[in-house]
Every structure is written in C-alpha cells, then in structure tokens.
Amino acid sequence: MFADDDHWRDWAMLALATASDYWGGGGFILVPYDRASGEPSPHFREVVRSYDPDHIVTLEVGATQMDEWYPGYIQISGVKDEAEHARLVRTIHGGVDDANGLRARSLVASWCSPFRSIRLTRDADTRQRETITKLGRADRSDRYRRGLTVAPLPSSTSRVAASASWRSDVGLAAAAKVGVADSESTERGEPELDSIGWMTKPFGEPPVSLLWTTAEPSQTTDEPDWWFRANQGLIQVSRSFTRDKGSVVVGDTGTDFALALAYDRILGRGVWLPSAVLGSADIMRRQVRPAVQSLIADLQQDASSLVVCSTSVPARKVARISESLQKHEYGFETEVDRETVQLRFADTGRSPLFYVVDDHVGASVFLPMAQDEDGTLNALTGLETPIPSELMYSVGSGKVPYWYVEVGMSGDHAPRARDIPASRLTIESGTFPEVQLRASADGVTFDPSSMGFVPGGSLLPGRIGRPRLRSLSLRAWVEGMAAAEGLGVRLSTPGRQAELVRRRIGSRRDLLDLVAGPSLSMLRAFIPYERRPDSRDPDTVVLGLDPYLSFGGIKNLLLDSEERTIEVIDVLTSARLLRRGLILNCSECGRPSFLDADRLGQQYECPQCATMNTLTSDRWRLGSEPRWFFDLYATFRELLASHGDVPILASAALSQRARGYLDTPELEFFELDGGKTVAEIDVISSVNGEVIVVEAKSSNEFSRGKRVDQVKKLLRIAEVLRADRIVLATLQDSWKPGDVEHLAKEAAKSAPFPLHTEVLAALGR
In terms of domain of life, where is this protein from (predicted)? Predict the structure, then answer.
C-alpha cells in the first residue's frame, strides 16, 4: 500500500525497494490510496481479487523520513525549536504508522483472502487477524525475524537493478520492471530517457545505467539476471487464459504507475507512459513506438488484446495517444486488427500469470479421501510437502522453510478464495494447527513451517507440516462462510424434501435432469388437487385429492413411445420414486384405496378399515383384470405442490452454461445467537467459479408489500457469501420490471464488490 499524493514517487520507490528485500520480490504489486481519506483506489478492486495476494501490507516508514516528507506530521508536545524537534525525531526507532494507510490496508484486505492466523482453540469458526500487515526494509542481522523471509543477497557481483535513490519516471519504471538493489557501492545517476524502449519490451542487452555491481571484480561472465529473479529460481507460469495480455497505461499519477505495474504482473506486459516520455517526440519515435508496435504484432498473432487506458487522462486524449502509438514512421503500414488494440481497462479475470519456484511445478500426488454425506472429501493422510532441491539458507540458520505451497484438487468446483476461515479447509487432530493456510484462487495455499511441536536441532523434514486438507462441497463451503458472520445454515422444508428425493434418485445432477427433462409434465400430474375435479379421466384415479396415473396416462404425458415410457417407469420405480399398485375397494367400508405391489396378496387388508379382502373382480370393479396405477413418492408430491420444482429448474438452467457446477437445495440461514431466521435462499450455485444466489418463484414478482425486505435478505446473504450475482428465476415470461430495477439499484451498492443481477424467465419450457 502506498499514498498517491505529492510524494507518491518516494512512497513507490520505497515500496519497490522493500519488496526487493524479500523472497518473491517480483511478485509484489502496489495499491495506491488517498492519504486524506484512507480510501484505496477503486480501480484496484478487481485487480486485487484477480491477483489473489497472500498478504496486504503497509510500509514501515522511518520517523525521520516521514517528518521530511510531511513536516509537522510527527508532533512532540512542548518542543517548538525545529532543531530540537528534528533531533528528537531521529531518536524514534521503528516505523511510523499512517492512520489512513492502515484504514486503506484493511479495506483492501476485505477484497481478497489473505493469510490469517488459526486460533489454537477450536471452539468457533471465525476470521482471525492477518499474520502479516506491515513490511519494512530487511534487517539481515535478525536471525529470528518473524514474517516474510528475507532473501539472500545475490551471489554474483552483477545484476540488472534500479537504485533506491532514483526518483525519475524512467527510474521508477526500471524499479518496477527489474527490482531495486539492496545497496550501492557507488552512486548511480538516473537512467537516460532512451532506456524506456528496453523497459517497454525488454530485448537484448539492458541499458548500462541499469547494471548494478559490487566493489569486488565480477567472478562470472554470465549475462546478468534481474534483481527480482536473482538467486531465487523463480519462473513466471500461466494457470488460465485471458484475452487481454498487454496494457499501456498513460498518466503521471501514482495510480497510473501502480496500474501499469499490476497489469505487468498479471497480464505479463504492462507499459507506463508518463508525460515525460510522451512529451519527447524523439524518444517516442525511436524507442516507444517500435517497442509497442512489436508488442502489438506479437499479440495480434496470438489473437490477444492490448488495452490502452488511464485513470487521470481524458478519454479523448488517450484515444489520440493510442492512434499515435500505432502510427509508423516510415512509408509502409501494417494492418492492425481492430480487436487487438482497445481503449478500456484490462479484464484481468483470474490472474493468468504468477511466480513460482522452478521446482516441483505441476507435481501430482494421490491422496486417499473419505467422503462425507454432503460430498465433502477429507484427506485420510497428511500431504507430503514438496521441498525445493536448493535452499536459500542452510538448515542451521533458523530461517527455513521459506516457501509457500499452492495446492489445487482435481474436480474441486467449490468457490475459490473469498476468505473462508482456514479451519474449514483442514482437519486438525489436536490443539495446534498443522500449518497456516488460506483459501486461494487455485485451492489452498499454505506455509509449510510446522505449527506443532518441533524439537530443537530437527532436520528440515521434521520442521515442515503435513496438513490434512479438505475438498469442500458447496453446502460445507456455505456453512463455513456463514459461520464466520455469525450465521448458521440448515435445510428449509423444501430443501429437505429436495434432498430426500435426491437421495433416492442418486446425485443432484440426476435430480436436475429428471425435473428439467421431458418428465416434468408427468411429474406435475401427481400434484394433489385443491378440490376434487368434476371431469373424469380414465387414465387417472383421484383418491381424496391425490391423483394416481395409469401406464397410458404416463405415456400420454411423456409424449413418447411405449418403450421410452417403460424405461422412465423402470428408472423411477428402481429409485423408489414411483410405486406400482392397484386401486381396490373394500367389501365392508366400500372406500377405494391404492395398494402398492408390496402389500398385495390374494388376501389383503383394507388400508382404511383393516378389513381382510379377497382379490376378486368385485374389488377393482371395471375390466376382466385389474389395471396397474402408479403413485409418486409422497415427499416428491409435496415438493412439487409447493413449487419446489422451480428452484430445480433454475439450477438446471444455470448448469447448462457451466464447465464446473455445484449447487445446494433451498437453505435457511439463522442467527447462531438466538436462532432467529434471517433468510431462505432457494438456490446457491457455483458456476465456473462464480457464486450465484437465486430467488426462484412460480410468479414473476416479490410478495406484495415485501419487496424491500426480501431484497435486503437476498443482499445480506449474497454479501456474506461474497457472491458475484443474484438471479431472479421464474416460470413466467419475465419478472416484474420494478422489482428488477430495485434489486439492481441496491445490488450496485453492495460491498466490497457490486453485485450483478440477472433474470431467468420461462423456466421449464
């Protein structure tokens, strides 16, 4: 985090120099905030969520430095003499907190899923404090420093690095690209403006002004590496696809600079063009345009996009700059696809690029798992943590392990990150957690340093943890997210009914296919009548208000062949959702009843008066032989009667466009303290990583007079779950416009991210 004010260049260079002290320095991004209000830049909401950081930190700025940047910020009572004030400031040890910087840091932390401590007592699921919240320049003499591990100094004497003393735009661009040297044997002047071409698209030998060397003569003739990568064995890898793979950010503000840096880390290519560069026609002609045009050509071949944007420059001017960058100096012109260069902010999606240690990348392991009833998978053994073959520090240094491990489980479609309490992601057998971990964009990230008992002098394998991880079902994930906000989760009555039907038919997918398929009209024919029908259907018998269908009635409703009808009936009877039986009366009470095949015999008992009857033609009245009828599972009848098929139809519609899909039956949220019901949610689904909250109705509007309350309940649960969108689903052709407008207006105010809204209409057709 850094302040975007008159001293933003000082803040930014200090941030980059601090990042360069630590392992993974090339993996840092900067997020600016308004120092007057403590508000982080809104342009970084999606950037931070895409980037999925392990930690969000403020800078530890020394008191002398802070007093120099902001005279009067440090107040010492009773001291009016400036010289005495300066002397006392120099005696202050440690960093000085910026109150609004702390507020901004807290807000940014709410955008993502950082590392948090796991409480040692297991009495509650809650989000604990973060493990690391501030960062200062490294003290390499501190052997037992807590927090991020300090990177060793480069072993060779030559590196490509910026100097911490630089403050020019070119110097900042260099620091963002390659890192900042820890110390300087000789002072280096600011790099020349013509170095910007290499920084726009690094190729060939770096500018001489960027070479850092120690006082000792070089012991190697190898090409110097960048400071960010020195001695760490880091490589940048891709984990997903995004159309945007490059950016040009125009402007002189700290926000513009930080956005270009973030795009560089996330997309792979981020170019910052301040006015100092744009104002030099010669540099633009010789350095910037050729580099940008080469970048455009690369992206065009890859069918990717380059975005041109700014947080401070008017859109028209940005458009003119974009046109200028594409203009060739010479007579020839090359055709640029209109889709290649676009005037907008980048769609970062799920961050495609990140740095990893070049060891064990993509390694696969097999874990024995046990499955809970709700579908959650629990590891039966601890994960053997991969150990890099080369370490930064010796085992005796007290500074290992120093790496983090990223784990993704095959087939796990539960929502990623979103700050679910870490205690839900692991199985703990004792008081102490095995490791510190967090929910990440790939699954789970953990610090392998053991949190349990580690004897003194242990070798490395004895000092790393082996967590027993869990792959959560969506129901378990929802329960974990809700518990952190003081809410409990249970099945509502329709949800319980849907689960009972699901258990008989098989999987949730089987239930969606059954209800959303051609069998729906047939299933609805079993819904009890509100009053006894006047007309008589020879293929339907109504006992009380419950209809029973014959084979012919089912066939007519399926609108299919006899063979297909037999197949459907066989599936449903095998699942015990349909029962085959006879409609028989009683010789004494005379009332007809349905007797399923299991209760039939030559002698049978009347279900209503317990009289024993003989199975003769008098009992079935019509026909020489009785005709089979079918009864639907009573719970299924009740579910359909209460329009419980509508949420299932909505789920089926959402799953059709999904590569990865999970959902839940209707859930009821209640307060853990007191048990008061908060809301009932018809469907919660995970669609391609998005969390969707669904309100499903047979009508096309909220209950009369209750729109405001129902929208508040939807939004509260959506915010608890960090949902991406709310869907209104209906059997009708559309949803009432006034309801949709009200929901969209309120959803746009949701924090930390506005919620999108959508309507699914004409379900089941």
Answer: Bacteria
Judge residue 621's burial from the number of C-beta atoms within 10 Å of its C-beta, 0-12 exposed, 13-18 middle, 19 or more buried: exposed
Alpha helix (H) residue ranges in 129-188:
169-178
Both 596 and 538 in a single domain? yes
Instruction: Say if residue 616 is in the same domain as residue 712.
Output: no
On whether both 299 and 376 belong to a single domain, the answer is: no
Could you give the CA distance from residue 707 to residue 691 in angstroms, rounded to a whole number?
23
Side-chain-facing half-sphere of 442: CA atoms under 13 Å: 19
Question: β-strands 725-730, 690-697: how paired?
Answer: parallel
DSSP 296: H
Under 8 Å between Cβ of 699 and 667:
no
Dist CA 415 CA 418 (whole Å): 8
Helix (H, G, I), strand (E, B) or coil at 2: strand
Whether the pLDDT of residue 220 is over 60: the answer is no
CA separation for the pair 296, 703 (Å, rounded): 54
Position 353 in a domain: no
How many angstroms separate the first and last alpha carbons of the chain? Answer: 52
Query: What radius of gyration do the chain's Cα atoms show?
Result: 33
Confidence of residue 352 (pLDDT cuts 50, 70, 90): confident
How far, in Å, CA of 15 to CA of 1, rounded? 8
DSSP string, 384-434: -----SS-SS-GGGS------EEE--TT--SPP-TT--GGGGEE--SSS-S
Shared domain for 271 and 398, answered yes or no, is: no
Residue 39, helix vs strand vs coil: strand
Same domain, 328 and 256: yes
The residue among 508 and 399 whose pLDDT is bigger is 508
- Please name which of 377, 384, 391 lies closest in space to residue 435, comparing C-alpha atoms: 384
**CA distances for 709 relative to 134, 675, 712, angstroms:** 41, 19, 5
Find where tokens 């499955």 sit. Answer: 371
Helical axes 493-505 vs 645-655, angle rounded to 10°: 60
Task: Tell me, yes or no, whether 329 and 430 share the same domain.
Answer: no
Euclidean distance between CA atoms 681 and 491, whole angstroms: 10
The residues, ordered by sequence, that sit 6+ positions from 388 with a Cβ below 8 Å of its Cβ are 233, 357, 359, 360, 403
Angle 707-720/737-747 helices, nearest 10 degrees? 40
Q: Does some domain include residue 597?
A: yes
DSSP 634-700: HHHHHHHHTTTHHHHHHHHHHHTT-SSEEE---EEEEETTT--EEEEESEEEEETTEEEEEEEESSS
Domain boundary among 231, 262, 283: 231
Q: How many domains does the chain have?
A: 6
| Residue from 178, 152, 126, 148 nearest 56 by CA | 148
Backbone angles phi, psi at 493, to 5 degrees: -60, -50
The larger pLDDT score, comparing residue 277 to residue 411, is at 277
User: 181, 203, 231 — which closes off a domain?
Assistant: 231
Question: For the chain, what's the residue count?
Answer: 765
270-273 and 244-250 as β-strands: parallel, antiparallel, unpaired?
A: parallel
In this model, does residue 508 exceed pLDDT 60?
yes
Residue 119 inside a domain? The answer is yes
The pLDDT of residue 400 is: 64
Cα 627 from Cα 538, distance rounded (Å): 11
pLDDT in tens, 422-479: 889 998 766 677 888 999 988 999 988 888 777 777 777 788 889 999 999 999 999 9
Token pair in block for residue 475: 């129901």
Q: Is 117 inside a domain boundary?
A: yes
Cβ-based neighbours of 268, under 8 Å, separated by 6 or more: 236, 245, 246, 352, 353
For residues 644 and 625, membership in a common domain is answered with no
State both tokens at 28. 């840092």
Query: What is the extent of the structural domain holding 36?
Result: 1-142
